[in-house]
Amino acid sequence: MSSPIKNITLHNTEGDFFESLNRLQEVDTEAILTETLAFPEKTGVAPSCGLLAEKVEHTKAEINIVQNSPLAILPDSKEVHYGVIKEELEKSISELNDTLTFINAEARELQIEIHEEGSWNDQISDVVLDSLTKRLNEQNFETNDAEGAKEKLKSEIADKTAKANIYFKQLLKDSSQFCSKYFKLPSEEEFNDVQKKLRSADKTVTVRNMLSLKDIISELMNKCFDEPNHPYIVLDKRYWPPYVELLLRCQIVVRHPDDPRRVKLIPFHL
Q: Which residues form the signal peptide (predicted)?
């Protein structure tokens, strides 16, 4: 339970003080009686009494000091009052001026710091912008180089393809001329002699039905382009046997491992 001592207000006059003191003593006496009735085994003075007595003595000493101290009373002269007020105002103005000077100095320092920070940020922004611009230019240059290299490669491939086609056509022309000149179809007499030697020769086949060496090679080459996965041609009565044997002996063609009637060009490029 809170003590009612806290609700008592001490007054500045001596009469009020002693009246309050009497009330405090009554309250303290009631507190002592309450403690004695509640706790009969505890006899003696309550601790709050000693503390209260010390506060009373301290308050009395302060009252004596105030009563015995002479009060500084200003005269009734308006000039004196004006001078005192002026002095106080000048003192206040001086303090405010000092405060204003300090604030202005702080403001100048802040302005300098803001300017330095702005300059530093501008420098950083310039450096970052230059770096990003440089990297972007490098990437654009690399992209342009890559595109240029790609276009150059395409051009080179197109040139090589065109040259290969020209070389292929020239090779066909030269081989055709070579075969037509040195590997002509046999005459009627030669053909008949060979047919007589071959027991399995078909008598219905004539020289006009035979394929020349040039035609045989053309078929083999066209077969390689048309069906690269299965470039075999089937030999029949139209193929002149000596020419087929010549191609086999010169290792220009090879027979199929499972069907001797099929032949293909040997892949020299592998």
A: none
